[in-house]
Fold each of these.
Amino acid sequence: MSQPSVVLGVSGSVAAYRAADLARDLMRAGFTVRVCLTDAAERFVSRELFEALTSQPCLQDVFEEPERGRMAHIDWARQASVIVVAPATANTLVKLGFGLGDDMLTTLVLASERPLVVAPAMNPTMFTNAHVVEALERLRKQGATVVEPAEGDVACGENGQGKLASAATIVHAALTASIRSSRWTGKRILITSGPTYEPIDDVRFVGNRSSGKMGEALARAARMMGAEVAVVSGPVAVQYPAGARVVRVQTAQAMLDAALAELPGSDLVIGAAAVADYRPIEKQSGKMRRTHDRIDLTLVRNPDVLGTLVAEARNSGRNTRFIAFAAEPSDGLEIARQKRVSKGVDAIVVNDVSRSDVGFGTEDNELAWIGPTGEATSGKRSKLECALWLLERAAELP
Ligand SMILES: Cc1cc2nc3c(=O)[nH]c(=O)nc-3n(C[C@H](O)[C@H](O)[C@H](O)COP(=O)(O)O)c2cc1C
């Protein structure tokens, strides 16, 4: 495997001088290190210092192109296993948390799918500023690792939390993130996502409340962990990551056909879609008129999408792992345990649909994992954090 590489982002804190030692320690830990400075950082430490230490060019201005004709922010974002921003100023953190890209460092982070580690360093009052607190919370929810600053005397003479964490702690976080970023490298993950719409007539359908947010989070997490990703998605408004191949479908049958076409070569299949169990027996053409007092809608059973994929993979002798999602009320764990066996999947992940704060359409989720070697719960977290948790467990399936 090629050497893991880190982009070390250095922003304008007094602690910028400590980034020089950090760059050396990251190199000793096995990383190729490339440094991106903010303009404020350059007032504290020079590009030449980092270029000499790392034997790599530095980036600072967003229009710089060390290799002519290649956009550096895209190139560096693609090549990095991890981006580490240390020290991270209040200003840079708030920009990262809210998605600004007005300098090379923040633009590079926007262009990256890989894990992000931030190590704040600032005056204690700045560290408890509401915008900084919110930005850090947002970054955590987006899957970033926050290396907490230490308590003690800071450069401005105050005492409190705000000192840049030790180089050893930051290197450890970078290594952990780097392991995560290659967890699924060279593997292909197929995800079904969203609801299916089963047509009643040309304008009406039988559907469900799945938003596709969990499927989107799984696709992002899988990309973050190095996988090649294919998503077969029902009708949703979410944006899947650009690095994922997305096939859009409407009905359960179309989802099955598309997923069967994507199955060969898949190492892991995650059935996160809420596939309609039943569909109207026939679709009326045009728009049904409001002429009857009562109409009866007859529904027939849809194919079992995941069940069919499992059977197809097992019949063809493919060593594909399968994870099913089950939307169950809080007392549905026993049903899910039975489903794991009857569906022939490796693990089943239960969403508690009786709660209003997690599950359908919400930003957070809480997953219960029922696997071949045991059970676990994720705790309530953002859907992306849940997805990372799930894919870590999936990587350890026997
Ligand atoms: C001497 C000096 C020390 C500073 N130290 C810090 C610091 O430790 N943390 C911080 O968040 N901002 C600090 N600042 C303020 C930042 O440099 C300022 O907000 C700047 O705009 C940050 O830009 P950047 O985030 O693009 O690097 C310091 C400013 C000065 C003049």
Amino acid sequence: MYDVIIVGAGAAGLTAAIYTCRKKLKTAVISIDVGGQTNLTSHIENYPGTGPMHGIELMKRFQNEAIGFGAELIMGKANKADKIENGFRIGLANGEEYECKALILAYGKVPKSLGVEGEEKFMGRGVSTCVTCDAPLFKNRNVAIIGGGNSAVEGALELATFSKKVYLTHRRDSFRADEITVEKLKNNSKIELVLNSIPLKVIGDKNVEGIEVENVVTKEKRELKVDGIFIEIGYVVDTSFVQHLVKVNEKKEIIVDDRGNTSCAGIFAAGDITPVLFKQTVIAAGDGAKAALECYRWLTGGKGAVLDWTH
Ligand SMILES: Cc1cc2nc3c(=O)[nH]c(=O)nc-3n(C[C@H](O)[C@H](O)[C@H](O)COP(=O)(O)OP(=O)(O)OC[C@H]3O[C@@H](n4cnc5c(N)ncnc54)[C@H](O)[C@@H]3O)c2cc1C
């Protein structure tokens, strides 16, 4: 049995692991990937003390430090959580189960899906939710990107540096992105704007071969011949597998107090999965530290961490 299981290896989870391991708690971090959303930032400039760098590089440092202090990394998707006699049991999508005395939930947000035919089938075979990670795979190929916010607009510009042609498909006729970025988009000859259009289905055999879109005004359907489809329509929290244990708000975020305690004793939460304001890497990291120290206090019956150095 682990002292602590942390679900999520983003900024919050990996920081929590550094803190619990430094308190000599036997810690496992269960996660789908390592780095989380910070990996998607090609140039993170507002994480203090490191200088600007790729988000993947920053998160690699978090990972090395957490593992260096003794955290065990278990790759997988947690989809089940139960209270057991002396703690909690976490189930993974692959059927594995792990037990712990205390649980820290730090599994952030997941990309929203389009919900169209073929999307799930071709995920990883042409469909991607991460331009920064996968754009280089589509060098000199045709790609489509779906969305209308900053991520989609910036993603289209990034894709245009690799790809032959980029279709930017948006359901409205204007973008929710910074004016200066939209200007760059309109001046880029590799990018074709497919406005007022929604995706209907992903087409392909083994890999993506195209996407069918419909103009919502004219109802005209069109197939865009592409090898890659990037979905950039935002992020959601998915707390469905823990909602029988902890209270969530109307956005399904896990409600915590200012130390990361949830409504269930022994379960803590940190980072973007909570209602914390100004969702940022540095804030998630700080949150992870708080939740880990509070978790240590709880496991040691309130004796553990110092709350304030001046008292
Ligand atoms: C495009 C983009 C650009 C951004 N740019 C910046 C920036 O420049 N500066 C900045 O400070 N912030 C930026 N942010 C915000 C910042 O990335 C987030 O606030 C931060 O990553 C939150 O960290 P987290 O650890 O709470 O969650 P996440 O980073 O979301 O990490 C959650 C982890 O949990 C894992 N996970 C999810 N579900 C499960 C599950 N069921 N089982 C197991 N594991 C699971 C995920 O794989 C992931 O590893 C950006 C975000 C995006 C999307």
